[in-house]
Design a protein that fits this description.
The protein has about 290 residues and is α/β, with parallel strands linked by helices. The protein has a single domain, classed as Rossmann fold (3-Layer(aba) Sandwich). The protein is built from 11 helices and 10 strands. The strands form 2 sheets. A 6-stranded mixed sheet has the order 6-7-8-3-9-10, with helices on both faces. Strands 2-1-4-5 form a 4-stranded antiparallel sheet, covered by helices on one side. The longest helix is centred in the N-terminal third of the chain and has 18 residues. The chain is globular and about 55 Å long.
């Protein structure tokens, strides 16, 4: 439970295994091998977000039981499991949103780049770890003002800087071409899928290191869902992405790694392809094959 993922190739590139030279090879080949080995060690260390021994309570009810999980940088991790299993609770704990819930209590440690987020300024945490919710929640403002909002909260002001940051965020969210001629119109005039991408653009405006998404496509049609999934692929090179989803096919499509939760426990965590084709735990297999959930 909670094992460190073996940062292998991406879901579609798993045939690209690393071949280490035999001892009999030339000195130059050995040097090259050592360089590649060092590179691999560096990649393995790229775990910028880590949850250790997390126990979470809503008053007397324990929602998470000793969860240990590390999230690989510049990868997509999906959290799956039936309703009430604790996956959204963990997600909200990763940027301290649980503190807005009366009676909630978290035990354990969550570190971001080896810093304990529970000891950091909460505004700083939420700038570095952005959040996109299940239902799009644009502010009653213009498209431009929605994206610019986070910049002002974080003291990133200046008309030229703001305009450039808004455009960049909308481009990153694959929305610029659709809204560039109506930036000062109400965000409520956008479609549901566009509003969700606007919320992603708003989160991206402050350049977070981690992007959390809680069921971001549950209220969207298949076309909008496909656009969001395509967007996630383009974003993962820029930040770590963690997504909670009930859609098993979506997790299989987008995630490099998947964690399966059941009754507050992390049952299994592994590369997505391996988990879906050869799960280690019977509970995981039963859930993935639809025997419950």
């Amino acid at each position: 439970m909670g094992a460190r993922p073996a940062l292998g190739p991406n879901f579609d590139d798993r045939e690209k295994a690393i071949d280490f030279p035999a001892p009999s090879e030339s000195k130059s080949n050995s040097a090259e091998a050592n360089e590649r080995t060092a590179s691999e060690r560096m990649v393995v260390q790229m775990m910028n977000l880590k949850a250790s021994h997390i126990n979470f309570y809503y008053r007397s009810f324990q929602a998470l039981l000793d969860v240990n999980l590390e999230f690989a940088a510049s990868k997509i991790t999906a959290l799956i499991g039936p309703s009430g299993c604790g996956k959204s609770t963990l997600l909200r704990s990763l940027n301290r949103l649980h503190e807005t819930v009366r009676g909630a209590r978290l035990e354990g440690q969550i570190t971001l780049d080896n810093e304990d987020i529970l000891k950091m300024d909460v505004t700083s945490v939420r700038r570095r770890v952005g959040m996109v919710f299940q239902r799009s929640n644009p502010f009653p403002k213009s498209i431009f003002e929605n994206v610019a909002y986070g910049l002002g909260v974080n003291g990133m002001r200046g008309r030229q800087h703001t305009a450039e940051a808004v455009e960049k965020s909308l481009v990153r969210a694959a929305l610029w071409d659709e809204v560039k001629d109506k930036l000062h119109e109400s965000a409520y005039g956008l479609s549901g899928g566009q509003q969700q991408r606007l919320c992603i653009a708003r989160a991206l405006a402050v350049n977070p290191e981690v992007l959390l998404l809680d069921e971001p496509c549950s209220a969207l049609d298949p076309i909008s869902t496909a656009k969001i999934e395509e967007l996630l692929f383009s974003l993962k090179e820029q930040c770590t992405i963690i997504i909670v989803t009930h859609n098993m096919q979506q997790a299989a499509r987008v995630a490099d790694y998947t964690g399966f939760f059941l009754m507050g426990k992390l049952i299994e965590f592994d590369e997505t392809k391996k988990m879906y084709t050869k799960p280690a735990k019977k509970e995981t297999e039963d859930y993935i094959t639809g025997r419950f959930g």
